Every structure is written in C-alpha cells, then in structure tokens.
Amino acid sequence: MLKDSMTPMERAMALSKGLDVDRLPCNPNIANGVARIYGCKISEFNTDGKTLAKAQIAAYRKFGYDGVRVFTDLFTWAEAMGAKVKLPEDYTADIVGPAIEDYKDVDRLKPADPYKDGRLPVHVEAMKYLVKELGDEVPCSGGIVGSFTNAFFLVGTERMTKLMFKDPEIVHKLCEVSLQTLINYAEVVIDCGLTVTISEPMSSCTVVSPKHFREFSLPYLKRLVEYITSKGKGVTMHICGKTDAIWEDVVSTRAAGFSIDNVVDLKKCKRTVGDKIKIMGNVDPASIMYLGTEKDVKKEVINCVKQAWDSPKGYVVMSGCSLPVETPFENIEAMMEITREIGYPIREERLEELLNEL
Predict the structure, then answer these.
(1) Which of 69, 104, 324 is nearest to 198 (CA)?
(2) What's residue 218's pLDDT?
(3) What is the rounded distance in angstroms from the CA atom of residue 188 to the CA atom of residue 197?
(4) In angstroms, how far is the first alpha carbon of the chain from the final one?
C-alpha cells in the first residue's frame, strides 16, 4: 500500500506555490461517520468538544486525507438562535421546530453568541483542541452554513418559501440576523487558527430559482466571504444539487474553492469557472461511496480526475457531499488509495492503465 510522502499542509503549501507534490489533495468528507471510527456515539459530539475533535483526529489518522473540519449538522446556528432541534443518541441532529412561530416576531431574533448559545461553545472547544493537535500537519476548518440556509431553519422551509413571494422584507431580515450570527462564529473560527467552510444547501437551483438565489442569498454570501477574506483567510463553499445556473455568481463571491454535488457535470464546471475558482468534487457519496464496491469507488475517482485534474485554479478529489454515517471504511480507504496510485503530475496514460487494471 502506497504511503504519502508529504503531509497535507506541505502538499497544500507546495500546490499554492506551483511546486511538485506527491498526489492530488483528497477529502472524502466523512462528517459524523468519524464517530464510527473513533468508537463513540454521535450524541457525544453535542456535549463534549474534545470528543468531537478526537473523533476527527482518529479519522484523519486512519485515512490521511487533506482537510479536517469541525461540523456536525446544518442546524447548529439556528438552534443557537432559538430553533428546536432533535438530538438522537447515535445519529445526526434534525430540526423539529422554528425559532419563531410568527414571522412578524422576526425583530425579536438576536445574533447568537458562539461562547454561550446552544452547541456553539462545544464546537469552539473542539476547534481549539483540533488545531492544537493537528494544526501544523493538516488544514483545519470550522464549518458554517450560509445566511439564506440558516434563515430557512429559523422560520421553517414551507413558511420561508412563501415569504420569498409574499414578504421579501422579512426574508432579508432573517438573512441579516443570520449573517450576524455567522460572522460572530466565523470570527471565533479564525481566532482559533482555522479556516472557514460554508455550506449553502438551500441555495441550490434544485431548491430555489437563480432569481431568488441572487435576491436573497448571494448578497449575504458576498458579505460573509468578504468578512472572512478581510481577515486573511480563504473560503471554500459547498452548494448541493444543481448549480450550473449560478456558477458565475459563486465566483463573484470571491470564494477560493467550490465543492460541487455529484449531480453536476464536473467537466462542464471546470470549463466554465475552473479558471476562476478551485473545483472540488464530485464522487457520488451515496451510490458509489456508501453502496458501491471498492472497485466502483476507484473507477469513479479516476473518472473525476480525468475530467478535472487540469482545472487552472486547482482540483481536489472529494465526495459530492458529506458521506452517509455508515459508509464502509474500505470504500473511504479505496478513495485515498487510488488517489495515491494516480500520483502527480497526472499522466493520462497512467489513468487509463489504472482503469484497465480494475
């Protein structure tokens, strides 16, 4: 079995300077599946930051991927602002109730304090521990959601959808107070020494129209990214589902990296915006990583690399979204193994050779 000859941090630094590296960066995006690797229950992440960090460290040590992120679920920030969240014993949290029952109460919402509200202090504890243990070896990040996505969780998806048509002013108020919460949290992430990743699933063209994205999400994404970059940190962003119609808008936020879903045409994304933003993706997390064989995983990784390895601003092998909790360890290892076998610089004949061997 091949071993890395560089740490993820060394690899990232070399790539940023145009120097030689041992392989492409690779991040399976394991998410709460790290609990299975560390041997704890997911619910422990909600009360103990060190457990959350140690589970992330255990997963990184096992597989050697290129980025470690403190992030448990999409609802952490809305919960800190008053939304009701269900916390199962051993599965990912889910939202069960809005922060306000009547949207006319929007002015009562206050930005969350990362050191006091909800589970945010647990995540802060995890970030401090994580960067202390791994900060010199692998890029570490703190995950957040975008303002638009958080706004959905403050009032409920159905109500938010109606408000976009009936009372856009309320939507902007929800996004504004969400933005302040997220800036507060991003400031702590940066102060802890980590970078920031943004997840904006409700901005997907599968969920809302490009028009509504540009009206209600994009202005707040730009302000959030602007704040983070003003602190000297780059930002990566993930939007689920179809995003073709808003690629140029994503670029306009000045994010450094864009993680795309497996339903997106990777080659088309490279051709359209690869000269403006780093592309990350897009191995299918469900049918390939969770349900597929090791051979399926390796074939899919090779196919993704064939499509995007020469993207001008860079390419990262990555799953199209967070992996299901029960994704087989063997498939995660297969993703890392084939990336190492491909090596760098990429040779087309090597890719065909590896495909023929499978």
Answers:
(1) 69
(2) 98
(3) 13
(4) 16
Residue with tokens 């975008």: 146
Tokens of 197: 């990743």
pLDDT tens digits along 102-128: 888 999 999 999 999 999 999 999 999
Amino acid letter for position 203: S
Tokens (6 digits) for 66: 């290129």
Task: Name the token pair of 285.
Answer: 């997390």
> pLDDT at position 104, please?
84
Report the C-alpha gap between 169 and 167 in whole angstroms.
5
Q: What is the DSSP letter of 323?
A: P
pLDDT at residue 253 in the model: 98
The tokens for 120 are 């945010």
Structure-token pair, residue 290: 């969770």
The torsion angle over the Cα atoms of residues 58, 299, 342 and 136, rounded to 10 degrees, is -20
Rounded Cα–Cα distance for residues 148 and 215 (Å) = 10
Helix, coil or strand: residue 241? coil
Report how far residue 60's alpha carbon sits from residue 55's, in angstroms, rounded to the nearest whole number. Answer: 9
Contacts of 8 (CB under 8 A, 6+ apart): 25, 64, 65, 66, 67, 137, 138, 139
- Give every residue of the chain whose pLDDT is below 70, as ranges: none
Burial 147-175 (b: 16+ CB within 10 A, else e): bbbbbbbbbbeebbbebbeeeeebbbbbb
Helix-helix angle 147-155:218-230, to 10 degrees: 130
Alpha-carbon distance 226 to 220, whole Å? Answer: 10
197: which strand partners? 143, 236
- What whole-number distance in Å separates Cα of residue 261 and Cα of residue 259? 7
Domains in the chain (CATH in brackets) are 28-357 (3.20.20.210)
∠ at Cα 19 (14, 25), nearest 5°?
Answer: 50
Grouping H, G, I as helix, E, B as strand and the rest as coil, residue 238 is strand
Q: pTM of this prediction? A: 0.96
Per-residue model confidence (pLDDT) at position 54: 98
- How far does Cα 340 stand from its chain's mean position? 22
